[in-house]
Amino acid sequence: MTSTRTEPEIRHPLSTKQGWASFAGQPNPEPPRLLPREDWKRLDGFERELYNEARQDYHSTLLLIATPDIRRVIHYGSKLVANNRGKQLGRRGLLVSGASGTGKSTSITQLGRKFQIDLQRRYPPNPERIPVVYIVVPPDADPRSLAREMAAFLGLPTGRRENPQSIAHTVAEVMRRVGTGMVLVDEIHRLDLTTRKGQDASDQLKYFFDTISATFIYSGLDLEESNLLSGMRGRQILGRFVPIKTGPFAYRTDQDKQDWVKLVASMEQTLRLHKHQAGTLIERADYLHARTGGMIGSLDQLIYEAANDAITDGAEKITKAHLDAVLLDGAAVAQFQQHRPGSPR
């Protein structure tokens, strides 16, 4: 085994042209090969450290499991792209809403990735093309900050005193020139349409929607409870966007339980542990749902953090103790405590 360590890779945020290009062009991670038992036992200290790190890094990488919500977002988003093709007027967007940890950002970024890969397969390479733009709405957003986010993704310089309209015009012109066909706007719930600033920011997004022949995808936290859909502008958003709701996995019917078990089994198959027995986590499906509330983000953390702990302590298999020791997000903890026997109602 080669005992070398490379320099840490510089990772650009997804909301930059470089970060998105890396994400869209990155193949699914290759699972590290599990060494035969005798070779594994012969590793010296440094070799074992590198070997363990490679497996832990693999577990920590987002290992995409195609959940029903992700499949729905990609399915309906792809249909909208086809329906919008060639239209100047009457285009529709997608409005993805759900609780934290239900895969909203994962869903829309996978949709954008699929769109870009399909485009690159269909047309000759063009280094000038930027098929997808992805931005995160900043807190307390206004027209200037939204336009600057778009400009930053495209790598366009903006002057401190440059007015929002000038930045927006430049951004729209560049996006048309580089062939942008999909615009992903994440954390859209930060726009408060009951305030003047939020209304102006919404109008800015509408300007981009009207002047760029692209499919727009909005994603945000429980949008039905936010102020994004308030008033005339909120009604206009609902008139132009197809809503999709993401949510936790239910666990009531036999079909619900089968879907959950399939998800757990898919994740268990990815584990790179020497002593873990397949089916161990499936036997704990009830417990895993109770701990996570059916949230895909919480399940991902629970399983892969427990797997990495099992590598660190040498157990090389996930035990109940490993799972119990993982500290999950506050929402998962609260719902688990609420449903434990003897907990106050």
TrEMBL record:
* Lineage per the UniProt record: Bacteria, Bacillati, Actinomycetota, Actinomycetes, Mycobacteriales
Q: Which residues form the AAA+ ATPase domain?
A: 90-242
Signal peptide per UniProt = none
Q: Which named protein is this?
A: AAA domain-containing protein
- InterPro entries linked: AAA+_ATPase, P-loop_NTPase, TniB
Say which species the protein is native to.
Answer: Rhodococcus koreensis
The cross-references to Pfam families, in alphabetical order and at most eight, read: TniB (PF05621)
What SMART domains would the database entry show? AAA
Q: Where is this region: Disordered?
A: 1-34
Q: Where is the composition biased (Basic and acidic residues)?
A: 1-12
Q: Which domain of life is it from?
A: Bacteria
